[in-house]
Amino acid sequence: MSFRTSIRYALTVWLALLTVGLTNQASAKVKVVTTVPELAYAANAIGGELVEAKALLRGRENPHFVDAVPEFTRLAAEADVVCVVGLDLEIGYMPAVLSRSGNAKVQPGGIGYCEAGKSVNAVDKPSGPIDRSMGDVHPSGNPHFFLSPKNLAASGNEIVAALSRVDPSHAQSYRNGLAQFVKSMASLDQEIDGLLAPIKKLQKDNGGRGVIIEYHREFSYFLNDHNLLNFGSIEDKPGVPPSAGRLAEVAIAAKASGVKVVLAADYFPKKTLDRFAELSGVGLAVVPTMIQTGSKTSTYDELQRHIARTLVSAATKSGQGY
Questions:
Q1: Residue 18 has pLDDT above 50, yes or no
Q2: Assigned CATH topology for domain 196-315
Q3: Contact at 8 Å (CB) between 140 and 175?
Q4: What is the CATH number of domain 29-124+136-185?
Q5: In 28-79, where does DSSP find H-type helix?
């Protein structure tokens, strides 16, 4: 092979490799890492084929108490976008995960950082001075908005903003994806409203007073979506297990007020919930609060339906809600 032929061959190979590299770069999906599965679901729905979103949590954890494991750091280091719930839900682990990742663009203030809760009208904001003696209080409001289809859709605005910053050429596609996501969430919300009709009747028959009590206030947005009142919570202080005296006191008050059901996440102590049900005579609706892959609540729609059906079943005593 002559020198000129060798040069021509090398140039051809280089151009081919460059073309492949540019093609791969153009077709690469935006890597999104979220804390809870619901945000990954929203990001995938909004971004479609342009996005690959993965959640750090598997849906079986108590999202208030999570450790900053090395796998979280690795995923954050490789991400184009990191999206958190915000409202201090991840305050115990995400600052460490992000700082250890060494990924500048996903740090707070970076182009790939997304705090979904910024687009949500937060509820249950505490008033007055706040300190740790009050329990696990969230100064900016209740962070569990992702249990509400309406508010999950609202949080999509932050997802679109982050995706558009890191991938501006597809900004319009992301806006279109959000518009479709908002419609699908509105449709789901309407469906769940119909499933909850028996609870609404119970509430009406109870003089318009709430027939639901929570173990921990994490269903506020879900209940608000459907105009369902909450009698209160079994916890005296958020994140602090109730004493025997507290259980008895709230059980008596709930029974006297016509409460029909306890609504609780599946990671709270079953023994405590059983004892409260025994003292008050109300039903138990113990449900997952996040999408759980490989279970009967492996999609967001299935999760919403399961919560509604379990709540109705327990409240009407046609089942115990486990």
A1: no
A2: Rossmann fold (3.40.50)
A3: no
A4: 3.40.50.1980
A5: 37-47, 70-78
